[in-house]
Design a protein that fits this description.
Layout (H helix, E strand, L loop, with lengths): L5 H8 L12 H9 L4 E3 L3 H29 L7 H22 L3 E3 L3 E7 L6 E5 L9 H13 L23 H11 L1 H14 L11 H24 L12 H10 L12 H4 L2
Antiparallel strand pairs: 1-4, 2-3, 3-4
Helix pairs in contact: 2-3, 3-4, 3-8, 3-9, 4-6, 4-8, 6-7
């Protein structure tokens, strides 16, 4: 998968027009605008609609990645650590979509891909592939394979502290989804994670007291978020997904970090469920 270069991404992200319908999802844009095309380029309305839809999607995905990461921290208790792991997976998932969007690429799990054909500012062009070669079965597996294929172009350029954001764990592009599936669908592994947590977790020594796959997942999600934040600042990502009077910084602070969870424990049916 071919992404924009750094300079190409700066240009692409800086060209958000806001002239297209804000309610158009990138998937709908593909279906209605791009599905019958093999390519599109600057100067065409299809380019404007794709760019605006994709950059809005990248902006939304960054917000969702941050909130999944923040709420995962509330789940670090023995009974819910398995869901902390899953929440960190989705933080990584949304962050990866955000990163790909800023580099001009879009992936749909059934083999649909939009990638770069011409990177040059002023002449940018994208190709549309409906049957991209799939190395792995499953929509998430396909996405991660395409993601790491695109990010390979930036491995040498990325800060060593953030290499987890661009290089697959153990050279396996499907490591993230493989581990999520194990935790999510094999209850014995979810309970094993609880046992490990109880044996070693120390909140005063977080995240160093995390071990095994959940420790890797935490570090990976964190690296992906920081990588995305750096790219959003560097590329000047700015869209209209928030009200005109609210910046992305304020939305993230007010809606994610400065808000206390609702105290709904009294709805937990404790007396009926402690059987």
């Amino acid at each position: 998968m071919i992404p924009l270069s750094i300079q190409g991404a700066k240009y692409f992200c800086g060209q958000f027009s806001g002239s297209t319908a804000t309610a158009t999802a990138i998937r709908d844009c593909f279906i209605t605008v791009l599905s019958k095309r093999k390519s599109f380029k600057e100067g065409e309305q299809a380019f404007v609609e794709y760019k605006d839809s994709l950059l809005r999607e990248a902006d939304r995905c960054f917000f969702l990645a941050v909130t999944c990461f923040r709420r995962a921290l509330d789940l670090f208790s023995s009974a819910s650590v398995f869901w902390a792991h899953v929440s960190l997976y989705y933080s990584s998932w949304f962050a990866a979509h955000s990163a790909l969007g800023m580099f001009g690429c879009w992936v749909h799990g059934d083999g649909k891909v939009v990638q770069v054909k011409n990177d040059s500012p002023g002449l940018q062009e994208f190709s549309v592939t409906k049957n991209y070669p799939i190395q792995h079965s499953g929509s998430h597996q396909f996405f991660w394979d395409a993601y790491y294929n695109a990010m390979n172009a930036f491995v040498l350029w990325t800060d060593p502290a953030l290499q987890l954001a661009v290089k697959p764990i153990s050279s396996s592009p499907t490591w993230l989804i493989d581990k999520r599936n194990q935790i999510n669908y094999q209850t014995i592994l979810a309970f094993k994670l609880m046992d490990d947590y109880q044996a070693s977790f120390d909140p005063a020594n977080f995240p160093s007291s995390l071990h095994g796959d959940v420790a890797t997942q935490f570090q990976l999600a964190r690296a992906m978020l920081l990588f995305c934040a750096e790219r959003a600042r560097e590329f000047g990502l700015k869209t209209d997904i928030y009200p005109a009077t609210i910046t992305r910084e304020r939305a993230i602070r007010d809606m994610i970090f400065n808000i206390s969870p609702c105290n709904l424990a009294h709805h937990s049916e404790e007396t009926k469920l402690t059987i």
